[in-house]
Amino acid sequence: MSLLGLYHPTPSLLHRLPAGLKLAALLVAAIGLFLIPYEIWLIAAAVGCLLLYAVGRIPVRLVWAQLKPIAFVVLFVFGAQWIFAGLHTAILICARLIALVALAGLLTLTTRTTELVATVEKLLQPLRRFGADPTRLGLLVALTLRSVPVLAEIASDIREAQRARGIAWSVRGFVLPFVIRTLRRTESLGEALVARGVDDD
């Protein structure tokens, strides 16, 4: 899984929609998810987000690729929230997490990274007068949308490796490999960006 995008070209309605419209829809959906207070409606919303993959003609293997990495994270968050905040809160948080990751993944699968960056760059042009670089900010937004599934994938891989070795769960045994692998992925990403002409000049 690459932080630079997983665009999957198919002749679907979602692919033909402008990147700006899809970004706006993602923002509205994210706000709406946090305004829904009932478990049943949030679960229905999460299922609806997953059904959008069918509209986008995304193969099942790619849908699973979006969800598999966050499975461990969702289970961990669900258990922790159930213990410390109750079942109601656990369901709300996990349903929102699944829906948001699904929507972010769908956006990157149906939108070219270049279009996404160009759209964000155009929206952020007014910030140029304050010394901001819209191009870099646009790239940052695109990378942020991909970062959650990628980090979740790292977490899932580490936990699977621990189970295969018969290692019991421990915070220390999980966090250290997670940090190391994240730093390595970040270094690889930096090298990829430099190769594409994105540097500190």
UniProtKB/TrEMBL annotation:
Primary localization class, coarse: membrane
Membrane topology field: Multi-pass membrane protein
The protein, known as: Energy-coupling factor transporter transmembrane protein EcfT
The keyword Transmembrane helix belongs to this UniProt entry's keyword annotation: yes
Organism of this sequence: Fodinicola feengrottensis
Subcellular location(s) per record: Membrane
UniProt keyword list: Membrane, Transmembrane, Transmembrane helix
Listed InterPro entries: ABC/ECF_trnsptr_transmembrane (IPR003339)
Lineage top rank: taxon: Bacteria
TM spans (from-to): 23-55, 67-84, 90-109
